[in-house]
Amino acid sequence: MSVESNQLTIQYIGQVGVILRKNDIAIAIDPYLTDSVDQLGGSPEGFWVRRYAPPVKPETLTDLDLVLCTHEHMDHMDPATLRVIAEASPDCRFGAPKVCLPALEAMGIAPNRLQALGVQEAWPFAEGLNIQPIPAWHEERVQDEAGWDHYLGYMLEWDNLCLYHAGDTLLTDELVNTLSGYTIDVGFLPINGRDIFRNRVGVVGNMNALEAADLAAHLRFDIVVPVHFDMYPNNSEGIAPFVDRLYQKHLGQKFHIFQPGETLLYNKVR
Question: What CATH number did the domain enclosing 111 receive?
Answer without folding.
Answer: 3.60.15.10
